[in-house]
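Action item from last meeting closed. Structure (482 res):
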């Protein structure tokens, strides 16, 4: 589709709309891809364009992105969880460390918030590590999976944009270099501008702050569904709604968490901390020190270190492999959903969904209104496409020169920069087709649509407050002129 129009929104609208309507995410995502084939057929008049398998599924699932999903999320992380189940490493961490910090629902959610901030290298890494580490603790203290999924999700991408000691600044700098030569003459200046504009990323700060207050149970407005989830868990111990369908198997109340542990194996904190240390060390140190990413290698080394440690501490190789394979099996449905999400993202790119939404914003905009409009635009694009980085790739090269043309002031450009930075993160949190949203649900044992519907009101509150702050910043920093 060379000339994007309203029809480019159809696949995203079908996928998201059906997900909310039916709560069947697999079916909804699949129908979104099917509708893309129908849109192509209608636009071109060529029935061959309706072949959604050849045109969308095969290109999307046959590329490096999905191979990385299978490698990291299906094999490495699934296998790691299976090994932890055999060694009892995660449960031991929950009992020892969580037992010292978490004394009830409030302190256990605070632990989840802290871990989310510590594991802040990006949405997917943070959600997986924080969710896996804190879930046994919060389950013990009757924290609903909806609450935990919100805490984990809201301390992922938002934290990565306000504590950006990761790959985000370099990625954004590459997008904006040369768009406003006086602000972004090269990528080094782009990275510096990123750090200087963090103070205007109001959505990021507000979202993380609201999550902390919610974890501490002092935020007054949570929304009807989240309040009901909290009340249900505290009063009955039911961590999920009656009709919930978590992507990872949730054990019953009579399940003995030590029943799958290898006989005769004594768990230790090393079983938990060594693999995590290997992962974070290989993921962070080369990135910060030399600007080199070893994220795939870090995950493989992580699971291999867990295997090696268990073997050195006396576990039989057959038990280790049994745990690894059982862990991989639990990730199958999640891998399928992520594959469909990757395909929807590919569809959005092919149909120029984000480009069409950008055209809806004209250039005759009062300068006081532009940051708020950019926030809303990024929220809509990221929600429809399920990616913050994809939204950045479309919006940043257009938004920065637009801001400069409206008001040639680096401070004003910085406010608009922060608006784009935070607005796109909204979709990472809230869209049911976002990998971060899916993984947050998966690794906290929460039903995906229950997570989306309970988190959305809180995220929207943060977005409204962020827009208000951006508008006030324009008034205070550059004035309200047209």
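Sequence:
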């Amino acid at each position: 589709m060379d000339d994007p129009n309203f029809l480019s929104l159809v696949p995203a609208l079908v996928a998201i709309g059906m997900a909310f309507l039916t709560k069947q995410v697999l079916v909804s995502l699949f129908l979104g891809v099917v509708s893309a084939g129908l849109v192509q057929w209608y636009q071109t008049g060529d029935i061959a364009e309706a072949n959604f398998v050849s045109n969308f599924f095969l290109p999307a699932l046959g590329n490096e992105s999905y191979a990385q999903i299978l490698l990291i999320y299906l094999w490495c992380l699934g296998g790691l969880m299976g090994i932890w189940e055999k060694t009892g490493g995660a449960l031991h961490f929950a009992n020892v460390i969580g037992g010292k910090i978490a004394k009830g629902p409030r302190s256990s959610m605070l632990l989840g918030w802290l871990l989310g901030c510590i594991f802040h290298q990006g949405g997917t890494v943070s959600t997986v590590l924080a969710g896996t580490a804190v879930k046994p603790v919060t389950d013990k203290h009757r924290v609903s999976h909806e609450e935990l999924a919100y805490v984990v999700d809201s301390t992922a991408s938002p934290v990565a944009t306000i504590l950006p000691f990761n790959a985000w600044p370099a990625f954004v700098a590459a997008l904006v270099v040369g768009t406003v030569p006086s602000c972004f003459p090269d990528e080094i200046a782009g990275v510096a501008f990123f750090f200087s504009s963090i103070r205007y990323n109001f959505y990021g700060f507000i979202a993380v702050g609201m999550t902390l207050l919610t974890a501490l149970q002092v935020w007054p407005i949570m929304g009807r569904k989240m309040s009901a989830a909290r009340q249900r868990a505290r009063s009955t111990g039911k961590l999920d709604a009656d009709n919930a369908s978590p992507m990872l198997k949730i054990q019953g109340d009579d399940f003995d968490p030590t029943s799958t542990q290898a006989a005769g194996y004594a768990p230790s904190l090393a079983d938990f901390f060594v693999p995590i240390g290997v992962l974070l060390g290989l993921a962070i140190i080369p990135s910060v020190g030399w600007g080199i990413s070893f994220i795939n290698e870090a995950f493989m080394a992580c699971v291999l270190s867990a295997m090696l440690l268990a073997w050195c501490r006396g576990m039989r190789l057959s038990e280790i492999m049994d745990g690894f394979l059982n862990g991989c099996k639990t990730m199958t449905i999640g891998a399928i959903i992520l594959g469909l999400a990757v395909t929807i993202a590919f569809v959005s790119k092919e149909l120029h969904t984000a480009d069409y939404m950008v055209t809806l914003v004209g250039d005759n905009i009062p300068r006081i209104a532009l940051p708020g409009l950019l926030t809303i635009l990024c929220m809509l694009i990221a929600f429809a496409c399920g990616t913050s980085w994809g939204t950045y790739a479309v919006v940043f090269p257009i938004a920065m020169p637009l801001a400069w043309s409206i008001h040639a002031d680096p401070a004003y450009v910085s406010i608009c920069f922060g608006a784009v930075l935070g607005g796109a993160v909204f979709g990472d949190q809230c869209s049911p087709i976002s990998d971060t949203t899916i993984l947050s649900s998966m690794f906290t044992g929460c039903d995906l649509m229950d997570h989306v519907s309970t988190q959305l009101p809180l995220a929207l509150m943060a977005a409204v407050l962020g827009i208000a702050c951006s508008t006030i910043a324009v008034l205070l920093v550059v004035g309200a002129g047209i």
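Note appended to the action item: The longest helix spans residues 448-477.
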